[in-house]
Amino acid sequence: MTNERRGIRMVLLLLLGSFLALMAQAQTGVICGTVTDAKFKEPLIGASVVIEGTTVGAIADVDGNFRIENVKPGKYNVVASYVSYNSQTIKDITVVARQEAVLRIELSDADLQLQNVVVVAQRKLGTEAAVLNTVRKSLPVVSGISAQQISKTQDSDAAEVLRRIPGITIVDDRFIVVRGLAQRYNNVWLNNATTPSSETDSRAFSFDVLPSSLIDNMMVYKSPSAELPADFSGGFVRLMTKNVPEGNTFNISYQLGFNTNATFRDFQLTKGYAVDYLGFGAGKRELPSNAPAHLNDVSTSEAAAFTRRVNTGWDISNFTALPEQKLTLTMNRLFDLGDWRIGNITNINYSTGYDYYEMKNNNYLSYDMKNDQSSYRYKYDDVQYKNTTKLGALFNWSFLNGNNKFELRNFFNQRGTSSLSQRQGTDYYSEENIRKWESLYTGRTTYAGQLSGEHKWLDEANKFDWTLGYAYAAYKEPDRKVVKLMERKQDDELKYYVSDPTRYYQDLKDNSFSLGANYEHAFTVSELFKPVFNAGVYGEYKDRTFDARRFIYNLLGSGYNRFAEWDYTSIFTDENISENRIYMKESTNKSDSYTSNNQLGAAYVAARLNYGEKLNANIGVRMEYYRLKLDGYESDGIKPVNLDQSSTEFFPSVNVAYSLAEKHQLRVAYGRSVNRPEFREVVPYVYYDFALDANISGNVDLKNAYTNSVDLRYEFYPSSGETVTIGGFYKYFEDPIEQTYNEAGSGLQYTYHNADHAKAFGVEVDIKKQLDFIGLKNLSFVFNGAYIHSKVYFAEGSFERDRAMQGQSPYLINAGLFYQNDDKGLSASALYNRIGKRIETVGVPAQNPNDDIPDIYEMPRNSLDLNFSKKLGKYVEIKAGIKDLLNSKIAYKQLLELTDASGDKREVEQLVRSYRPGVTVNLGVSVKF
Question: Is 300 helix (H, G, I), strand (E, B) or coil?
Fold first, then answer.
């Protein structure tokens, strides 16, 4: 009863408070209106409008609208301000009770003569209009995407988001290709600091570790500029996580995903541990800390005892795969402490889901012209079961006080993947029917932290910003088991006989430290000439340690059955582990470990020159000192490899923008950049890739690649939030780096080589347009596409023939229709994506083209996503979507151009790999209060 009375009192108090508030409001007026850019007439999102002499004010929304309520009748002065714009004071505004005083405020871009703007709120960069505004004012050629646009898709991580940016494609669901250039030609910074690569065999940042809900904006710079790192030839990705909250909110969202391949399928994986559900299962599978330094240095009985100690992970768990589940918790806090405005965003996200693939997996020797048929090296059918769990957190702070701003950003992601692969088919090299079985758990840890500051003084004519960063990445493959079986007769029946079981342990750790600082000073020479001087320094240190151990099984004696059907627990029992039957030996040598580090020191100077508002140019030069050190061994484990390479180089750049008219702009850019070999690409360590059934090795003789780039782009901005851009580019590459493969004994070997030179040119189109001009209210259209032509050239006399660059697609298409009805809280979208065929791996040419081992192409496929969301009241939103509705086949093929004896030419296709990823249906709900 007491609780009921207390509840009644609370309701009465709330009603009384509401009545008093309404009465008070009835005696007050409103100051409202819009804040726009004086030149472009675009809304200034986040602009501050404050009653002079008070802290009472409002922030402009995505349409530039503001509203200050509960203003007592009288006359007031109002101050409107926005970062990098001249403040404006509107005087003697009369406020009348129960009436609105409507203002139309236009702020002029301070550009090079900045005024004293009192910042009481930060500019919002996560909206579509804000990103378009950044693209419009940037002098380097840049494309981007905002958190607002991301929210209209079913994209779950940064890799999927990037597909929406013009000229961008995704490889292996997590690596980017910019303008047809593979991931190794691109560079990534997270929150203005370097990111390490957590991949064993590639120079790349895995974008799938970053949930899309944490992204504020992503900008992809496509032309070099002095303030950007020189080590990119395709694109430089600057990814910013959310940092400044709009208010005090708490959000919880939950989503289920149903995949037609995996969900509710009978599934199997090797038995795991409870911590697998959090992505931390790698630690449970590592070798004991007191394991022998090398197993071959101990006696056979000790080796058998050690084998028994680590004899785990063979048991198979059979279960039904549940739907994918995602849970996200986000808390935003904004408060004042003295003169400081402090913001905090805390996010915890979790997901776990299952994948199932049935794959054709083939490889070929040179084509058999005599019998007019393909010559298989192997022909397999693969089945893969996979469970992936991700646990992530974001903990960001912002501190704002007038012209000083500090930010502390922290991002963490833990990803654990358990997979089981079954392979069956024919190895034509050994003329054996075989099976292969792989059980693999991988653990990836990523942390990135940044402390940064921004300071302005002397009427903002001087700006200084700095960023201190640390990043850590770890990749573990603990206890990877591979079992090979060969078909043999047992009791006059063909069965599979266990032949070569192996176990493999791998541990990679990357640490990165960075420090950057930039200074800007604005001059006023005349009304038409207001130059800006920029200078900066940047330092970076990365180190990597890599350790791997390999074990093979001795299968001796009798008394146990070596024939098995995908389950090997009956063979690898503790009873069978002994020095007379089964025990492990070690095949590790010194080449299975290496250490490396690189140091980068950079400085730049640049000048932004203008002639009124018509012409702006950014001219600069960047100097970079780079040193790479690596200590390892050749693949035989005997000959040491000690690299110590350093260079000091200069990279000029020019970026020019010319305003043709109020809404029309023309850009031209030139720059020189470098593409340096990464740690793994130079170390001769050999790694076996089960999916490719091949070894991968580095090349100590790799050289730096250099690129000279020219860009030309026309931009048209019809109205707020709309854009039409058409651009062209040309690139010349010196010594481009590519991955190639060839025959190596009984198998394939992948490695890296420099080509002589290459050229690429292309055209890009990007359109964002509202369709209300044809009567389709609340509907918008987005299209971006690119046509790209590239060619790699080789020295005269070589067998290699000119061809397209590895990873380059001849065309890319992204299109989308977006419906947004804010009054009804309803939104929907349809998104389409297609890429042209591209070389995945470069083949091996022969003197006679008919004897080539051809390039492997990833073939074009169509992707269509549908999304829907509906707000229910103020706090609840439901979302639904269908991802990859068409479920087109993912296929890799070799395309042979053959010439017969009569000189006639024809093309033959050979299927290398193919599978369907399945259709995924997502259902989710979020609550925000």
Answer: helix
Q: Coil, strand, or helix at residue 3? A: helix
635 is written with which tokens? 């693949």
Pairing of strands 615-633, 640-661: antiparallel
Over the range 512-535, which residues count as b (16 or more CB within 10 Å of their CB) and which as e?
Answer: bebebebebebeeeeeeebebebb
Residue whose C-alpha is closest to residue 274's, from 418, 113, 90, 447 = 418
Closest CA to 126 of 4, 239, 285, 295: 239
- Torsion angles phi and psi, residue 270, rounded to 5: -65, 150
Nearest CA-CA partner of 47 in 5, 1, 81, 24: 81
Contacts of 584 (CB under 8 A, 6+ apart): 295, 303, 306, 307, 503, 551, 552, 553, 554
Q: Could you give the C-alpha distances from 381 to 261, 436, 705, 822, in angstroms and in order?
A: 16, 10, 39, 50
Rounded-to-integer distance, Cα 556 and Cα 863, Å: 52
Compute the distance between CA of residue 704 and CA of residue 593 in angstroms, rounded to an integer.
24
Please, which residues have CB within 8 angstroms of residue 293's CB and are 6 or more apart in sequence? Answer: none
Phi, psi of 466 (to 5 degrees): -150, 155
Q: What integer pLDDT is reported at residue 403 of this predicted model?
A: 84
Long-range contacts of 369-375 (CB under 8 A, 24+ apart): 369/850, 369/898, 369/900, 374/908, 374/910, 375/428
Closest residue by Cα to residue 766 from 809, 730, 812: 812
342 DSSP assignment: E
Structure-token pair, residue 337:
């402490």
pLDDT band at residue 868 using 50, 70 and 90 as cut-offs: very high
Cβ atoms 867, 152 nearer than 8 A? yes
What gap in Å lies between CA 625 and CA 539, rounded to an integer? Answer: 10
413: three-class secondary structure by DSSP:
strand
Encode pLDDT of 48-87 as tens digits.
899 988 878 888 876 788 888 888 888 999 999 887 678 8
List alpha helices for 686-778, DSSP H: none
What pLDDT digit, counting tens, does each position of 264-312 carry?
A: 999 999 999 999 999 999 999 999 989 999 999 999 999 999 999 999 9
Would you give the distance in Å from CA 608 to the centre of its chain? 31
In whole angstroms, what is the distance from residue 216 CA to residue 409 CA? Answer: 13
Distance separating alpha carbons of residues 356 and 262, to the nearest angstrom = 5
List Cα–Cα distances, 699 to 182, 449, 512, 737, in angstroms. 18, 33, 24, 11
The β-bridge partners of 620 are: 606, 653
Burial class (CB in 10 A: 0-12, 13-18, 19+), 767: middle
What is residue 17's three-state secondary structure? helix
What does the DSSP assignment read for 121-175?
Answer: SPPP-SSHHHHHHHHHH-SS-EEEEEHHHHTTS---BHHHHHTTSTTEEEETTTE
CA 912 remoteness from chain centre: 27
CA dihedral 577, 578, 579, 584 (to 10 degrees): 20
DSSP state of 799: S
Tokens linked to 542: 């990365």
Contacts of 806 (CB under 8 A, 6+ apart): 182, 738, 739, 792, 839, 840, 841, 842
Q: Please, are residues 387 and 417 in contact by the beta-carbon 8 Å criterion?
A: yes
How far is it, in rounded angstroms, from Cα 315 to Cα 395?
39
Contact 302, 292 (CB under 8 A): yes
d(CA 655, CA 755): 29
Decide: 709 and 671 in contact? Cβ < 8 Å.
yes
SS3 773: helix
> Which two structure tokens, joined as six digits, stand for 659?
């305003």
Contact, 284 vs 277, CB < 8 A?
A: no
DSSP 171-234: ETTTEEEETTB-GGG-EEEETTEE-----SS-S---GGGSBGGGEEEEEEE-S--TTS-S--SS
pTM, 2 dp: 0.80
Task: Fill in the amino acid letter for 683.
Answer: V
